[in-house]
C-alpha cells in the first residue's frame, strides 16, 4: 500500500491536451464508455473532471438531463414481479433435469480441459487456480482450505499463485499508467514507439516489448491502423508541370528535399491543412489551416517553412503533386525568390508522394485531427498542439528512433532504407 501511494501523481487540467479531452467526450457521447469507465480506462483524476469537459465540449445538454431514477408505479412493480415469477417457475422446472446432467457435464468439461492443455500446451488449471478458488469459496461460502482440498491442490500452492498474480497485476497497472501518460499527449501512438519512449521505465519493471504487447492486448489498448484516402489534387489545369527530380535521389541531409501536400481534416472534412515536411528528418517545417483549397493557404505554409530553415546556404528541392496550388504562377514565383527548385510527381498514385501522405496519416490517425467537429479557432489550436508534439516527441523508425527535431539538427545519421523495389515503394518504406 505504501508503494502504491508513493506512485500517485496529482494531475491538473493543464496535464490533459484539448485533443485528449475531445476524444474522451466523443467516446462517452457515442456510448462507448460511461463516466466511471472513462475515468478508469484513462486514469483521469477527480469525479467532476469529465463532467466539466462534457459541459464545455460536448454536443448534448448535460446540465438539463432528466434523472433516470424516478419512482416506479405500483402497476409497473406488479408487472415486473409477475415476470420474475414466471421466470422462476420456468427455471425451477428444469432444475431436476439439470441436476441429473451435472455430473456428466463436469466429467466432459474436465476432459475438455485435459485435451486443451495437451493440444495447445497451456496450463489452464494452473493459470486460473487462484481465481477459481476465490470465486468458488465465496460463492459456496467455503473456506480456502476446504476449496483447495476439494480441487486437489495444496493450500501453499494457492497462496504462492495468489502472490504471483498480485505482483503481475500491480506491474500491469504501472505499465498502463505509463502508457496512459504518453497517450494523453499522443492518443494513438503505436506499441513499438511506446516501448522505445518508455524503455527505461519498462526495463525497471521487468517488461520487454512482447510483454508490453501482451499487457496492452489484455486491456484492449492496442491500436488498429485506419486506412482512408481522399484526393485534394486538381492536376487538370493550364499551368506548367515540373519533372520529378527526387525519384532516384539519395536523400542524406536535412533541407535537401521538402515534400508538400494538402489534406482534409475535421469531422466533416471541411478544413484543409497545407503541410511542408522535410524528407530527411520528417520535421514539419511549415503548415497552414484554412477553409478552402486556394493557393494562399499553401503559400502561407511555404513562407513559414522558409522562416524555419537553418541550412539556407544548401540547395533545396520542393517536391509536390501536380495540384493547381503548387503549379500556379504565384507559388512558383515565390519558390524562385527563395532559390528553391520545384519537383513534381508524374503519376496520380498517392504513394508517389509517400512521405507527405504518411505525415498526413500520422496527424489524422494518431492525433485524431480528422475526427473532431469543431470550429476553425479550436481546430487551429488542435493542429498547433499536434504538430509541436509530432516534431519534438514522436520518434521515427527511419530516423533511428530520433524525433524529427533531433534528426533535423544534425547531418550525420543516415535514414534507414529497405530493400529497393521501385522508387515509390522504397520511399513509402522510409517513413515511420
Automatic annotation (TrEMBL):
One Pfam family matching this protein: rve
Keywords associated with the record: Coiled coil
Stored SUPFAM superfamilies: Homeodomain-like, Ribonuclease H-like
GO BP annotations, alphabetical order: DNA integration
Residue stretches spanning the membrane: none
Keyword match Calcium: no
Coiled coil: 71-105
Domain Integrase catalytic residues, every copy: 250-412
GO MF annotations in UniProt: nucleic acid binding
PANTHER family assigned to the protein according to its UniProt record, in alphabetical order: INTEGRASE PROTEIN, TRANSPOSASE INSF FOR INSERTION SEQUENCE IS3B-RELATED
Protein name, per record: Transposase
Organism: Bacteroides coprosuis DSM 18011
